[in-house]
Design goal:
Order of helices and strands: EEHEHEHEEEEEEEH
Bound molecules: 4-(methylsulfanyl)-2-oxobutanoic acid, nickel (II) ion
Number of strands: 11
Helix content: 10-25%
CATH class: Mainly Beta
Largest sheet: 9 strands, antiparallel
Number of helices: 4
CATH superfamily: Jelly Rolls
Shape: globular
Radius of gyration: 15 Å
Strand content: 35-45%
CATH topology: Jelly Rolls
CATH architecture: Sandwich
């Protein structure tokens, strides 16, 4: 089970720390805001899931200190991932190794819900949900990214995306 909890919003502490308020978030709550979570132990299960949802493309990202020329370049990349954004299509991520934090914005309360993904965890973030990503203090994730079409991904940052059509559709879908 993916560990999920309310984020403490303490920006004086590095974003790769846990930021755990101690308030857990249930799978039912994640489903209410449109997330899908699966635990897959084999690549075949992931492939089947991708095929059922009509996913045609994929890539693997390795995000760690050695993937960048220096620490500063890594931090600037992490800052991009950590900007609150949405996409016009689902974002599917499967953790192959290491771990990472996907923070999703609860549209009902505006709280950040932090999901710690570890090996075998698959998350589907629906189109239009505001979210962000970071490494944990271990500084390493290897993740499979699944794409319906070409492996390119446009991010729309908040607040510019507030009147994006997919944002509006997302809010309607969750009942807002
Ligand atoms: C995203 O969209 O934020 C990402 O792809 C982050 C890297 S996936 C572990
Ligand atoms: Ni994203």
């Amino acid at each position: 089970m993916v560990k999920a909890y309310i984020h403490d919003n303490d920006s004086s502490v590095d974003f790769r720390e846990d930021h755990d308020t101690g308030k857990p978030v249930s799978l039912e709550k994640l489903e209410q805001i449109g997330l899908i979570y699966r635990k897959f132990d084999t690549q075949e299960e992931v492939d089947q899931f991708a095929q059922d949802r009509d996913y045609k493309n994929r890539d693997i990202v390795n995000i760690t200190v050695n993937s960048f020329p220096d620490e500063e370049t890594m931090i600037s990349k992490l800052n991009v991932f950590y900007a609150e954004h949405l996409h016009e299509d689902e974002e599917i991520r499967y953790c192959l190794d290491g771990e990472g934090f996907f923070d999703v914005r609860d549209p009902f309360t505006e709280e950040w819900i932090r999901c710690r993904v570890q090996k075998g965890d698959l998350l589907v973030l629906p189109a239009g949900i505001y979210h962000r990503f970071t490494l944990t203090s271990d500084n390493y994730i290897k993740a499979l990214r699944l794409f319906k079409e070409e492996p390119k991904w446009l991010a729309y940052n908040r607040p510019d995306a507030d009147d994006n059509r997919y944002r509006q559709e997302y809010l309607t879908q969750v009942g807002l």
